[in-house]
Amino acid sequence: MPQSADLLIEPRWLIPVEPRGAVLEEHAVVVSAGRILDVLPARQACERYQPGHRVALPEHALIPGLVNLHTHAAMALLRGIADDRPLMDWLQTRIWPAEVKHVSPAFVRDGTLLACAEMLRGGITCFSDMYFFPEAAAEAALVLGMRAAIGLFVIEFPTAYATDADDYLRKGLAARDRLRNEPLLSFCLAPHAPYTVSDAIFERIATLSAQLDLPIHLHVHETRQETEESLARHGARPLERLRRLGLLGPGLIAVHAIHLDETEITLLAENNCSVAHCPSSNMKLASGIAPISRMAEQGVRIGLGTDGAASNNRLDLFQEMRQAGLLAKVSTGDASVLDAHALLRMATLSGATALGLDAEIGSIEPGKAADLCAVRLGGIETSPCFDPASHLIYAAGREHVSHVWVNGRIRLEDGVLRQCDTRTLLDTVILWQNKLNA
């Protein structure tokens, strides 16, 4: 007698990410109660299971939902407001003043709703956020049914959100306590950067990370200027300073990590740290090219992030996979580095592992949450298809994403968001644009 199940998905190709390099044909994924019940040949699946709903995807590759390891989601409302400027000028003369004037819980909620809608349409099912008013960001993610690792943001100067670093920590931890039972939410400690956080606060963050088992998510080694200032102020390069303060370890997510020497790459590898590589933002702000091929050789875990829409300007992990691969090849002169499967792993399982979520998401395996993305590869611009994994990186884009499930629930169906009133959302965005232009 067939076993009942909620959902049976039959793609043309199934790329589970784990085991590495696998591409399965004529296979199906069986989902029950939000989790992957089975992965098996489609004929056997039809004999063994009686699904409540069946989805045939004859031109599609089914992959794990993408994991955006670093973004500032609410900054979607600042998309294009300050382009073509170097990082510190961008921050100090345009972004920070705009935030001082406008950032509020409503700004964060609405901006994060916009970002979540964009990310879901591009196959992103989980994002790691770093911004003010984290509870408002969490609310927006839950409205659209998206998985989020909410950063408990810390910086030393006052904002509308908090008065000082202690206040940021107190409010962030209180938000975590209120939301910790939400199944789609997890949390990170998110100190902004070495140049905006003191030694004392870093030491407190290291202690909290160990006590609460929370990852630490921060910008580091983003510009040469950052390194020079750290040497002048602290007598050490940023990563060495973090090592002395006890922050290096499996829970550290080093965002950008561009200007590293060989000793620092080894330090990241030896401490089992993760790197959130943001190639488009790094290029757009002229920050540099991160040495990810050398990191990968040393065994550093590398995930992919979009950064915020104010510095990218897309929340698009298909773009980031492609850019990461092309930059690695041209910067090393080696066309063989970081093949398609390695890049897809960065955008899925590596990001999940960095967040401590690899037992839940990041690959298509029985027992994991059914966070899934279907990509149509049967169109003019994706034909012929000799290698679906290669196509995902070098030919397809987010516009080819047709279906997205989070925890087994459909969030995007035939390219249409299921839980978002797009017209109302866009009307809200126009209101914010008028305020920002005033």
Q: Are there runs of 5+ residues with pLDDT below 50, and where?
A: none
What separation lies between the terminal Cα atoms? 66 Å
- Total DSSP E strands: 17
Mean pLDDT: 97
Structural class: alpha/beta
Write down the overall geometry. Answer: globular
Main sheet specs: 9 strands, mixed
Query: What share of residues is helical?
Result: 25-40%
Number of helices, where a helix is a run of at least 4 consecutive DSSP H or I residues: 15
β-strand percent reads: 15-25%
Rounded radius of gyration (Å)? 21 Å
Give short descriptive properties of this protein.
438 residues; alpha/beta; nine-stranded mixed beta sheet; four-stranded parallel beta sheet; globular
Summarize this structure briefly.
By secondary structure, this protein is α/β, with parallel strands linked by helices. The chain has helices spanning 42-48, 87-102, 105-121, 134-143, 165-179, 199-212, 224-234, 238-244, 262-270, 279-284, 292-298, 317-332, 340-354, 388-394, 422-437; strands at residues 3-14, 24-25, 27-32, 35-41, 49-64, 66-71, 124-129, 147-154, 185-191, 216-220, 252-256, 274-277, 301-304, 372-376, 401-406, 409-413, 416-417.
